[in-house]
Automatic annotation (TrEMBL):
Source species, domain of life: Bacteria
SUPFAM superfamilies in the cross-refs: Phosphotyrosine protein phosphatases I
Organism name: Campylobacter vicugnae
InterPro entries, sorted: LMW_PTPase, Ptyr_pPase, Ptyr_pPase_sf, Tyr_phospatase_low_mol_wt
UniProt keyword tRNA-binding present: no
GO molecular function: protein tyrosine phosphatase activity
Protein name from the UniProt record: protein-tyrosine-phosphatase
Residues covered by the Phosphotyrosine protein phosphatase I domain: 3-144
Keywords linked to the UniProt accession: Hydrolase, Protein phosphatase
Claim: Signal is one of the keywords in the record: no
Enzyme class, UniProt record, top EC level: hydrolase
Family membership noted in the UniProt record: Belongs to the low molecular weight phosphotyrosine protein phosphatase family.
PANTHER family in the record: LOW MOLECULAR WEIGHT PHOSPHOTYROSINE PROTEIN PHOSPHATASE, LOW MOLECULAR WEIGHT PROTEIN TYROSINE PHOSPHATASE
EC number: 3.1.3.48
Amino acid sequence: MVKSILFVCLGNICRSPLAEGIARKVAKERGLDILIDSAGTSNYHIGEPPDSRSIEIGRQNGVNISMLKGRQISGSDSKFDLIVAMDRQNYANISRLGLGNRLVMMGEFGLDEADIPDPYYGNNQEFKMVYDMLYKAINAMFDEVLK
């Protein structure tokens, strides 16, 4: 059984903190006791809060991620039972770190596309689309891997 999940995107300010917040909410609703965290493959935003647009779309959906801070994935993250990459490039970067024992793509769960697109250069509608994709995929992931 999966007891810990790490969500990973590039900078840990858009997709992965949203995924962390959504997963925490869904886990709480389902009465699950799971360690949930997020990280980025880059060091661009270490210590920074999530993108304001991610914070806002989370808030609109009852998910508070405003307290999260960006961090970079490291060797100590091998402790996670499941590492979930947001796109193929993140997957490749994580694989090179040798942390791929239980490495999966977020889009493998309930979505038609493998990649969760990075909304960083997009508008609020793209953040909403990413939120919806993450919500659907995380629920499907919990249904599948937390049986």
